[in-house]
């Protein structure tokens, strides 16, 4: 039951066994909880929260603390080396490229994706076939980053410009149609990083559009009517009515996308594997930990990722609190 | 997807009853034809990449190598051979039918387990009194910010020590754990909106915590459970990082891992990659199209509180 399932029937059986085992645990908890009559909140709460607290402690808290500890160890996790891994991240030229790329990702993706999403939300608002138009932009949200990576790798595909060889990647074909030379798009740094960022923008714009569209529709009628009676024009309406009203939603969207972008791994992994100077922290963490067996450095990279996420989350929560107040 | 966060936080209301929104009136005067044109241009831009690869997946190997997919319109010739090839382990060099099953086997328990546990926990936080409740809730809420990367290596070491490495258990346990903080937070937001009088009435009728949970709360929770369930389903189905770390072995690796490997080993075999991509996309896109309403509701779930 706890071994590797290899055949189809084994796999399916193991899945049902896992679900049944889990159901039995839940059933036991509920059965015991049902024995307690009256207001025995403490005991029942302990039962209800027990599995959750156990899983979070073993699965998140302990590994997190252990990684922080391991970030001060060497590649084989045997010797204590102080802050050396962090010094490497901040001074090694390769690691500096990783930091630079991560900065590009986090500074560009949230704003472009949110801008496009907002523009589109306004353009299709109350338009004919609004939900169909939205679904087109939103669809990339539902597919995996791996599939998105494959889709875009094909867009960027390059064929050398010689004889009667034709381009099969759409972007290079556009370049040729416009009279340019086809480029090895995913090889030239730092252009390639921005081409990978485009994939993330393509995915996240749908999220921004959905949230902002809902925010726009929630603006009360009377405010709009009052502004209209005051003779506010379309740009003024956007600048002084729409934008202030949806400002909290815009901030939440930007910060949420920024957090997701910091952790981006799949796109880089699928499209370049981090080669050609395209690696980012999340990808570098994976290569150092699992490919190069440089585990101390990998742990330090994970901790850096953690440290970078914190201020964005705190800002996000602050904004939420303020908008709720 | 790295989009686990969206569910948490969205200070917007979802009422769609308004006749005229600010944006609509701004747009109306914003020379409507140009606005429509811009919308169409954006929609086309966003659709072309997927559309191009979809067309490609039905073209012959020869055609794919020799010309772009846009030439198909003047010279249409379609085939299912690419799908046959990619689904045949001998030809593809990757076992997609098996990995499709692996994806399913991984995903289903990884959705059910955190949903059940989170409902119980959220109920305890919303309707029970016990010492340390607030601190515990804040601690769980705060765990949301832990990036998965921080946990992977120590978890792998634990799984090796428990002798379950290379099995589906690693994926079930880790995905379930990672989902809990967000699920508890969301369901708690939803549960605490249930009027206290409803719970009190049930309690006066002699109902204990178990029957209140099943008879009163569960029916009310269905939309929230559906929203989070779909979200978690797509998250696990589309995940690469966790699977690559714990389930990289061919016997149990899911579609994302196999497709990702294919881009490494057969990076120029577009007849395989295009068909393979769409085999991996078919389930999430179907889920999305059928259950779009719930999915969007899940995305806006932060607004449940108003």
UniProtKB/TrEMBL annotation, chain A:
Compartment annotation: Cell membrane
Residue stretches making up the ABC transmembrane type-1 domain: 99-318
CDD domains noted in UniProt: TM_PBP2
PROSITE patterns associated with the record: ABC_TM1
GO cellular component, one term: plasma membrane
GO biological process, one term: transmembrane transport
Keywords for this protein: Cell membrane, Membrane, Transmembrane, Transmembrane helix, Transport
Keyword S-adenosyl-L-methionine assigned: no
Regions that span the bilayer: 12-33, 45-65, 103-123, 135-155, 194-216, 237-262, 297-317
Membrane-topology annotation of the record: Multi-pass membrane protein
Main location: membrane
Protein origin, superkingdom: Bacteria
Record-linked Pfam families: BPD_transp_1
Family assignment from sequence similarity: Belongs to the binding-protein-dependent transport system permease family.
Protein name listed in UniProt: Carbohydrate ABC transporter membrane protein 1 (CUT1 family)
From TrEMBL, chain B:
Its membrane topology: Multi-pass membrane protein
Keyword rRNA processing in annotation: no
Pfam families (UniProt xref): BPD_transp_1 (PF00528)
Protein origin, superkingdom: Bacteria
Stored PROSITE patterns: ABC_TM1
Record-annotated ABC transmembrane type-1 domain positions: 100-291
Keywords: Cell membrane, Membrane, Transmembrane, Transmembrane helix, Transport
Entry protein name: Carbohydrate ABC transporter membrane protein 2 (CUT1 family)
């Amino acid at each position: 039951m706890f071994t590797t399932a290899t055949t189809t029937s084994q796999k399916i059986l193991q899945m049902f066994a896992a679900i049944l085992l889990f159901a039995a645990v839940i059933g036991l908890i509920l059965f015991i909880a049902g024995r307690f009559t009256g207001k025995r909140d403490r005991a029942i709460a302990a039962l209800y929260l027990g599995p959750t607290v156990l899983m979070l402690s073993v699965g998140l808290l302990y590994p997190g603390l252990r990684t922080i500890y391991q970030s001060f160890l060497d590649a084989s996790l045997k010797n204590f080396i102080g802050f050396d891994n962090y010094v490497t991240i901040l001074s090694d030229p390769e690691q500096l490229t990783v930091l630079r790329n991560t900065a590009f990702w986090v500074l560009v993706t949230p704003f472009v994706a949110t801008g496009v999403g907002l523009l589109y939300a306004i353009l299709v608002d109350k338009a004919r076939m609004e939900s169909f138009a939205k679904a087109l932009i939103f669809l990339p949200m539902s597919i995996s980053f791996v599939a998105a990576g494959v889709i875009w790798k094909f867009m960027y595909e390059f064929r050398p410009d010689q004889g009667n060889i034709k381009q099969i990647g759409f972007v290079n074909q556009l370049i040729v149609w416009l009279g340019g030379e086809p480029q090895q798009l995913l090889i030239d740094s730092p252009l390639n990083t921005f081409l990978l960022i485009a994939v993330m923008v393509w995915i996240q714009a749908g999220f921004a559009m959905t949230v902002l569209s809902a925010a726009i529709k929630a603006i009360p009628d009377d405010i709009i009517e009052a502004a209209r009676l005051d003779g506010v024009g379309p740009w003024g309406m956007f600048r002084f009515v729409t934008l202030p009203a949806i400002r909290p939603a815009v901030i939440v969207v930007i910060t949420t996308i920024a957090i997701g972008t910091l952790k981006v791994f799949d796109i880089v992994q699928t499209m370049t594997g981090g080669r050609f100077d395209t690696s980012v922290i999340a990808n570098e963490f994976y290569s150092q930990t699992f490919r190069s067996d440089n585990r101390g450095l990998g742990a330090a990279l994970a901790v850096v990722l953690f440290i970078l996420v914190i201020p964005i989350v705190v800002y996000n929560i602050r904004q939420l609190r303020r908008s709720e107040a | 997807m790295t989009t686990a966060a969206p569910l948490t936080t969205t200070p917007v209301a979802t009422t769609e009853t308004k006749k005229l929104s600010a944006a609509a009136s701004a747009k109306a005067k914003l020379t409507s034809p140009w606005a429509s044109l811009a919308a169409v241009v954006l929609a086309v831009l966003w659709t072309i990449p997927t559309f191009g690869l979809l067309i490609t997946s039905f073209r012959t190997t020869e055609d794919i190598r020799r010309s772009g997919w846009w030439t198909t319109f003047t010279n249409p010739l379609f085939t299912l051979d690419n799908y046959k090839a990619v689904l045949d382990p001998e030809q593809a060099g990757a076992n997609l039918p098996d990995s499709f099953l692996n994806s399913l086997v991984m995903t289903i328990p990884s959705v059910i387990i955190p949903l059940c546990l989170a409902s119980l926990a959220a109920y305890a936080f919303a309707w029970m009194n016990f010492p340390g409740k607030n601190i515990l809730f804040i601690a769980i809420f705060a765990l949301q910010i832990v990036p998965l990367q921080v946990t992977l290596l120590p978890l792998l070491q634990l799984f090796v020590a428990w002798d379950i490495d290379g099995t589906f258990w690693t994926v079930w346990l880790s995905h379930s754990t990672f989902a809990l903080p967000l699920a508890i937070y969301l369901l708690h937001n939803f549960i605490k909106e249930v009027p206290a009088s409803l719970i009190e009435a049930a309690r006066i009728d002699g109902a204990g915590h178990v029957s209140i949970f099943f008879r009163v709360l569960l029916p009310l929770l269905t939309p929230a459970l559906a929203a989070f369930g779909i979200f978690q389903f797509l998250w696990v189905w589309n995940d690469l990082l966790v699977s690559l770390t714990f389930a990289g072995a061919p016997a149990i690796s899911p579609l994302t891992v196999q497709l990702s490997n294919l881009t490494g080993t057969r990076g120029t075999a577009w007849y395989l990659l295009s068909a393979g991509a769409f085999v991996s996309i078919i389930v999430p896109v179907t889920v999305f199209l059928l259950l779009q309403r719930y999915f969007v509701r899940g995305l806006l779930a932060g607004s449940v509180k108003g």
